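Question (not urgent): is this output format expected?
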Amino acid sequence: MNPRRELYTLVGADLLSNLGTRISVVTIPWLVLETTGSPTRMGLVAAAETLPYMLSSALATPWADRFGVRRTAVTVDAASAAAMAVVALAPWLGFGALVALVAVAGGLRGIGDRVKHVMFKPAAERAGVPLIRLTSAYDGLVRGLMLFGAVLGGLLIDWVGVTRAIWIDSATFVVCALLIGLLVRPPAPANPAPRESYLRALRGGFGYLRSDRTLLTMLVAVSATNMFATASVAVWIPLWVSRVLGDPAGFGLVLGVFSGGALLGNLLFTVAGPRLPRRAMFALGLALSGAPRLVTLALTDRLAVVLTVTFVSGIAIATVNPLLGAALYERVPESLQTRVLGISGSVAFVGMPVGALVGGWSVAALGLSPALLVMAVTCLVLTVGPLLLPRSRADQPEPEPTVSTPA
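Got this back:
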């Protein structure tokens, strides 16, 4: 197969499984609501999916190295399809079975996402696509799917009912497994992962990440960014909208404007990213994407001002994930990519559940406006502060920006 076509197939398969995941974010809670009527159980099911996702992203990667990343991707996507198909029948099996099945599905998706991402680098190199351009375009497409998938999930429930909507979700994983199994043929790695015990392999991944201060600093900053983003969506923005606008539609408007800015930023960065200084763009993206939004919410009641700053922050955030992704692909040795990318995903996501707790606690303790100002300063310290520290001599220099695109 043409190398570019293979890359597009791989990315398309991954995006399709992402679409299925976004649909399930809507359909599974709705299934719980329809069958139990319990908000508490809705939260329990959401946690049952998220925690295994984070754990398997890191802890299952040594097995993926041993089994092979392509075979792992096909196997877990097929298993995800089966798990989601049975989830649709879970109301007849009982709530405990539903929780267990959702946990299995979350764990499968965690390792499935990581191994598909490991295949991106060799596919991009064979296709002559700069990694920073790939990671930026991919980040923009995923952000678009986050909006489209949630809307589609709601429409599917309305059109065909929640059970059939979950079966459609299951079908996306079947197609993903077929695309990778039939059309993606990555070459054997030049430096394969060594054959070693599970614990030794896992320690090797953690050990490498701990030794690379640049990557570790970037991951801590992204985790902190995710923490404040989650607190904003879960607590701060809804409270501001309720206090100032009194209209829930304003909440969707603020989130939509941020997503629109992020999509525009991804488009711009996909074109210009290879030519820009990476460390400076990463720091600038972190500085503009978090704290200014919080300060604006604290100091003004004018919706136009909030939307303007939110849009600019959305543009800025578009640099962060692509630069982290490119750094992981370029700095981590091929033999360690599966386990290090898996561990990195878990570290980046760990701030998200903490964020909801921080958001609620800060408002309860300080009030909304004081909490936003305090958290804006904290956001800057935790996200940009570590990047201002001098680099170690042992750190690898960042790659030079590329001026021309390989053919």
